[in-house]
Amino acid sequence: MVPLTKRGEAGGAFAFQGTAKVGVLDIRLSRGVDLHFSPVGADDETRNISFVTTNKGSGQLLLGRNEAEFDHRSGVVFNSDHSRSLQFQDDCETRALVLSYGGIAEHCAKLLGRDLDQALLFKTDFDLDSAAGQTWLRAVHYAASEFGNPYSLVRNVPDVRHQLEQMLLTTLLLGHESNYSDALLRPQSAAAPFYVKRAEAFIEAHFAEPLSTADIAAHAGISARSLQNGFRKYRDTTPMNFLRHVRLRRVHEALLMADPSAEMVTEIALAYGFSHMGEFGTLYKRAFGVTPSHTLLKKA
Q1: Across residues 252-258, what is the average pLDDT?
Q2: Which listed CATH number (3.40.50.150, 2.60.40.1180, 2.60.120.10, 1.10.8.60) goes with 2-185?
Q3: Is 57 in contact with 90 (CB distance < 8 Å)?
Q4: What is the pLDDT of residues 219-249, one digit of tens each?
Q5: Is the distance from CB of 110 to CB of 168 less than 8 angstroms?
Q6: Closest by Cα among 219, 206, 212 to 239
Q7: Measured between alpha carbons, how far apart are the two ends of the chain, in Å?
Q8: Quick one: pLDDT band at residue 39, thresholds 50, 70, 90?
Q9: Burial (CB count within 10 angstroms: exposed 0-12, middle 13-18, buried 19+), residue 53
Q10: In degrees rounded to 5, what are phi and psi of residue 119?
């Protein structure tokens, strides 16, 4: 933390409330300072996406060669993958919401119904005067109020806390522009025909087996080409991508439940249909933001 000027004495306070998945950080500074943050690696459990605004005063985000102002009418959203600095002006009261990258990437995949094929990136500037911005700001302040109340249900009931976390993730993903906004906001297709649903049910029941598109199509009673076209039209994916998504979801659940002293990532992955460990590791980290071994050891 570096003062922006040499005049006067610096004073302030930091207060964090929340969990490793979602947390609210309030910062009060009497004097302008520059906070610099080093990049966080893709495998680091602290990898996150942050939203910053102010209740009073203003500040500036320096992200590479880009700059963005924030105050009570505009916020900034950024991830921890790159070096960044936050500059706060004198007498500034700032509120930040910090989200686990793995948590929001996983939630985005669930909303899409498929794996993420690239890292999730949000637009930096967030207009808080817009309808979506006002909705998001109310959600952030509500979360801060609930996390700050020691008697709230959010603080004391895990299911309620989980619902709040899901609400925040959904509100940001649907309310602020990202590289997945078009897919998330695309109108839903008409109800899928029986053969797509039958194929999905077959995949869910036999995901650990070495399935091919032809195998799935034969069970669904349709040609492989028609099945491909049906999945693309009604699910915006392919049968094999859907199979991979199911396997990743199931192996993630298995790793969370596994005993790290008795089970290994490789044997769990093989049991759930993955045969190439390098590809599995890449897909898993892209979907959940951490490595499989991190989930097994840390239960993240």
Answers
A1: 91
A2: 2.60.120.10
A3: yes
A4: 999 999 999 999 998 888 999 999 999 999 9
A5: no
A6: 212
A7: 30
A8: confident
A9: buried
A10: -60, 145
Rounding to the nearest 10 degrees, give the CA dihedral for residues 167, 169, 175, 179.
-160
> Quick check: 300 pLDDT over 50?
no
Phi-psi region of 236 (alpha: psi -120 to 50; beta: other; left: phi over 0): left
Residue 45's φ and ψ, nearest 5 degrees, are -70, -15
pLDDT tens across 66-83, in order? Answer: 899 999 999 999 999 888
Of the candidates 262, 120, 108, the residue with the CA atom closest to the CA atom of residue 185: 108
